[in-house]
Write a structure and sequence with these properties.
Elements (H helix, E strand, L loop, with lengths): L1 E5 L2 H11 L15 E7 L2 E10 L4 E8 L8 H15 L4 E5 L4 H6 L3 E3 L1 H7 L4 H8 L1 H4 L4 E5 L1
């Protein structure tokens, strides 16, 4: 039975180490502000994503599911959990940067939106701040948004 919850500091360390072993950006993670949510099978982390709330929107980032748990609804469950966190904070929209998983997010009712709008709406997200310092990476990105 899968459980999804906020990662503890020790679990964050495990997630951060895992991020460094997969082909995903990890340099933009801020341990103090990137709030990781994790899916568990017993005591094993089987997936995770970060939640970075800002005033007008929140960011869902670093969504990852271990290969053995893919195609079983784990990724969707993590996204839905972060949507709930966003709603509880009365934040009206959830953004995601994705160059490869756009179809997945579109199936979950996210719509493509201009990167400039994302950056303008969630300027205090650690990921956006990192991209602003590394604009050549930002130029390659695609963003999606979901109104909540």
């Amino acid at each position: 039975m899968m459980e999804i919850r906020s990662a503890s500091p020790d679990e964050f360390s495990i997630i951060y180490a895992r991020l460094k072993t997969i082909p995903m950006l990890w340099e933009d993670v801020d341990p103090a502000r990137s709030l990781f949510q994790a899916a568990f099978d017993q005591d094993t982390i089987i997936g995770f994503a970060r939640f970075e709330p800002d005033e007008q929107g929140a960011l869902l980032g670093s969504l990852y599911v271990e290969p053995a748990y893919r195609k079983a609804g784990t990724g969707q469950a993590i996204v839905e959990y972060i949507e709930q966190l966003t709603r509880r904070r009365n934040i009206p929209q959830l953004f995601v940067f994705s160059t490869e998983a756009g179809g997945f997010f579109q199936r979950l009712d996210f719509v493509e939106t201009p990167v400039e709008l994302t950056v303008k709406t969630i300027p205090h997200s650690p990921q956006v701040e990192w991209y602003m310092r590394h604009p050549h990476y930002l130029a390659e990105e695609v963003t999606y948004v979901k109104a909540l």
